[in-house]
Amino acid sequence: MTIPVDDIKKLREKTGGGIADCRKALAESGGDFAKAEDLLKSWGIDKAASKSDRVVGAGLIETYMHAGGKVGAMVEVNCETDFVARTDEFKNLAHEIAMQVAAMDPKDVKDLEKQEYIRDTSKTISDLIKEVIAKVGENIVVKRFERFELGQ
User: Fold this and answer.
1) How far apart are CA 3 and CA 1, in angstroms?
2) Hey, how many other C-beta atoms are within 10 angstroms of the C-beta on 29?
3) Do the Cβ atoms of 140 and 58 come closer than 8 Å?
């Protein structure tokens, strides 16, 4: 089956998947975008699982202030290399996690990872992390976080 380049481009823009992966997903799904997205997600989860044992020695600390400065959060998110730590995908992930911590007050990292993502309740924070792992090709771990609330 020949897959039009425009379809590959459209799927890639929507999912962030690689060109070859998007072409393969569209071919396997017979051109069905929804099925192709599901395939890419499952492949991303497989990729994330295969990278989970890798050492994470780089990363960044991100902060987020909410509600007029009355609630804030600081998170440490680690990856394998400084190169990935400087990417927009990684920086955005760290920011979204800090915002999640400020909004939802998780008890610990495991609790955080199980929570529904505040911007898209169809996925958890763990799913969000796995999506970025699939995009950047490195293991990513939330090391620790702290939430601050005025008066507590």
Assistant:
1) 6
2) 18
3) no
Q: How far apart are CA 103 and CA 105, in angstroms?
A: 6
pLDDT at 104 over 60: yes
Q: What is the DSSP letter of 54?
A: S
- Is the per-residue pLDDT at 65 higher than 60? yes
As given in the structure block, the two tokens for residue 51 are 């990278």
Task: Let me know: does 103 contact 133? Beta carbons within 8 Å.
Answer: no
Q: Which domain holds residue 43?
A: 5-51
Both tokens assigned to 68: 């007029």
Task: Count up the domains in the chain and report the number.
Answer: 2
DSSP tag of 140: -
Regarding whether 63 and 40 lie in a shared domain, the answer is no
pLDDT at 92: 97
Q: Give the C-alpha distances (Å, rounded to integers) separating 29 from 22, 32, 34.
A: 10, 5, 9
Q: What is the pLDDT of residue 10?
A: 83
Residue 135 has pLDDT above 90, yes or no: no
Q: Say yes or no to pLDDT of 46 above 70.
A: no
